[in-house]
Amino acid sequence: MSPNVLALLPEIILTITGVLVMVAEPVLPAGQSRKPLGVLAILGTLAAGFASWYQLGFGTIHAYFNTIQVDSFSVFFHLLIAAIVLVTLLSSLDYFEGHASHAGEYFALTLFGATGMMLMTCSVELLMVFVGLEISSISTYILAGFRKGQASATESSIKYFLLGSFATAFFLYGIALAFGSTGSTRIDVISQNLASTATPTLALLSLALIIIGIGFKVSAAPFHVWTPDVYQGAPAPVVGLMSTAPKAAAFAVLLRILFSGFPSYEPRWASLIWIIAALSMTVGNLGALLQRDVKRMLAYSSIAHAGYLLVAYTAFPADGIASACFYTAAYAAMNVGAFTVITQIGGYRENVRTIEDYSGLALKRPVLAAVLGFFLLSLIGIPFTGGFFGKFYVFSAALHAGHVWLAVIGLLNSGIACFYYLRLLASLYSRRPAIEDNLFDGITVTLPAALALTITAAATLLLGIAPNQVLSLAQRSAAATAPGSANSTTNASR
Known about the structure:
This protein is mainly α. It has one domain. It has 21 helices and 3 strands. The protein has helices at about 5, 10-25, 35-55, 70-90, 105-120, 125-145, 150-180, 185-195, 200-215, 225-235, 235-240, 245-260, 265-290, 295-310, 315-345, 360-365, 365-380, 385-400, 405-430, 445-465, 470-480, and strands at about 60-65, 70, 490. Helix 4 (about 70-90) crosses helix 21 (about 470-480) and helix 13 (about 265-290) runs antiparallel to helix 14 (about 295-310).
């Protein structure tokens, strides 16, 4: 197999599947279910995941004139993105039934977005990263407003698009300045040329602009203003996707740029990341305390978790990269799982929105309430869950690097987070007023949705009690990304 084809095999599979969905969608009669297209998308996602696992046996693959690099690091995020997309498709397979005639477009856009995210994680050339970022962003801009006829959905899509365009401009200007100061947009060449650049201030400015652009994508404070409104208006399964998969890809890009592209500037960018992490944790948790709408609450929660994850960036490379990779996987499992439950409870019309609306869920749907409660406990960081081990690993890495105060700020914020997570958990097990006792009677959890919940709950539990395999792959990712580490043998180059 050609190195170029092998390097982008998961992306090729997703693209072909997305095109097949788009071609088949107008052929189906207007009133016919689009679920077969969703099944096709699920099969394509599974094939892309297996292709990513297949790549792991080839060591490091260089392709397309060294602009693409497939190694343990990129494979880790490929597998994570494929898993997130798989769960999202399973949870939303029946979401549009009887409500929307454009469900085929949803499945295709999800696959195209995943293609861009995977391309971001294996690109070692900043312009290629930009191409992947745009493919991912355009898809999510459309998906955010997919509930046609809803004013909040339209507001969500437009606001996400406009602010996302500004963030993209920052990122693109950062790439231009990096080229001006180092003469290249390849991450490894940038690292080599930084020592001899005649314009170090320009290089530092380029890095700052790149951090701003990526900070928007991961909804880190103070670049988070879009997050609550977009999460509130977007469909619940789309929020589960956009709060995890694009963030995972953006965090992967940031890891490569900081630890592989600008390692010599670490004393400077580490201070900036320190401030952003502390600000994100504090703003996110304090903002979540004031919310009654569950999706807005989880939006601020995602800002806080972006801060927790950024704590890892201030640690030593080996510890920081591995802990960031593991935390990304743990957060993806519990957050996608939580939004899968919300999707099943609220349905397409999302009539169940506020914390009070969830009162009495345990009496009517005890299994759904228990699963949602389990995800909330993991988001808090209770032991024997993926959230606990993820936070433990991140804060331990920060302490190992001497960032005691940042770890203290993180622990205090974890305590604050208990209030709003437990408030929702208490509501699940409280008694609902008799006049509204029939709100949950129409909930039906289909087999695909039950499978999605099983996958996410099992992943959250296993990451808390048996994290060794994921942790081992995360540590291999760190070895492939940290400067001075010995990568696997290069099998192909062009």
